[in-house]
Batch of 4 targets.
Target 1
Amino acid sequence: QVQLVESGGGLVQAGGSLRLSCLASRSIFSMGWYRQAPGKQRELVATITSRGRTNYADSVKGRFTISRDNAKSTVYLQMNSLEPEDTAVYYCNARGVGGFDMYWGQGTQVTVSW
């Protein structure tokens, strides 16, 4: 089992920035972020492997940066140039090699206003 604890959500104006953090209880192959807006399905935001390989949703490329500190089992999401469309609950995700074991955080609210 892996426990994930997220922090860093909040309210920000359009064009602003936020940084999300997610601490895992142990090291794991892949960590990342998904988000779910009201009335919509949960969607990928970005992922990063323990070797630093990243994957981003097209909607956030160039604005969001994912990084991780393997020694601290922590993943970060730096979100710049935020837009109201980024408003959602952001969930930390972690999975082992092959994806057979997958874990979710409790979610953190990000709200972007005009």
Target 2
Amino acid sequence: QVQLVESGGGLVQPGGSLRLACTASATIFNSYVMGWYRQAPGKQRDLVAIITSSGITNYADSVKGRFTISRDNSENTVYLQMSDLKPEDTALYSCNARKGWTTYWGQGTQVTVSS
């Protein structure tokens, strides 16, 4: 059974940093595109960042220069380093694994940016 387990969310002040982690089953990690999405209350779920198995990355314009996605293939883990956090970054952040038409989601981890 494929599982994606996220961790690292929490409450942070504006301008602060957090690092999210998502650990995936070894059977999928090395061949899937891994990504982070977020959904704020009352809004649709949006892409934050993705990283391919070869390390190519793509970011939403709203997080470019502030967030960095990376993957550790030896640990089957994808990270999202978030810096200079803003209140508008507050959302439920979910990990995604995708290959063709097959996609898996984690349960999500809440990030709240507030003073």
Target 3
Amino acid sequence: QVQLVESGGDLVQAGGSLRLSCAASGMSISIYTMGWYRQPPGKQRELVATITNGGLTIYADSVKGRFTISRDNAKNTVYLQMNSLKPEDTAVYYCNARFITRAYWGQGTQVTVSS
């Protein structure tokens, strides 16, 4: 059974940092494009960042220069380092794994940034 389990969400003040982790089980992430998405309160889910199995990264304009996505295939884990957090970063953050027609989602972790 494939599982993606996010952790690291918290309440933090504006300007602070958090590191999210997504641990995969029941699969090897090495062939997957891994991504982080978020859903702010009352809004639709949106892309934050993705990283291919070759290490190529894409970021939403709103997080460029502040967030960094990385992966450790040996640990079967993907990370999202979030710096200079803003209140508008408040959302539930979801991990995603994608390979051709396969796609998996985690259950989400809450990030709240206070002003």
Target 4
Amino acid sequence: QVQLVESGGGLVLGGESLTLSCTASGRDLSNHAMGWFRQAPGKEREFVAATSRSGISKYYTESVKGRFSISRDNTKNMVFLQMNNLLPQDTAVYYCARRPAALGPLATARLPESYEDWGQGTQVTVAS
């Protein structure tokens, strides 16, 4: 079973940047699509971004397009989420997740239930 560990969260001011990292152990991630989700207090977990096994294909939720960038380094078994121009509404716990399949269409790649393994999350707080 794979273990996913997120890091890189913190408290920043609006307009600043953070890079989240997701490190995997126990399984080679190069055979799996990967995703980032977030959950704010009192809200459901929502899709943020996903990337294909090769890292070539990527999806983003509308609210982060142009500001966030997902990438991966399969040689290091890691996935990243570069977040620029952060807004207070980006405040949430961010999770990385492994999809036991190829990326597929956005309609399914954005569903939390299509992911099998999750990290413990890292808190991102954006102050206005």
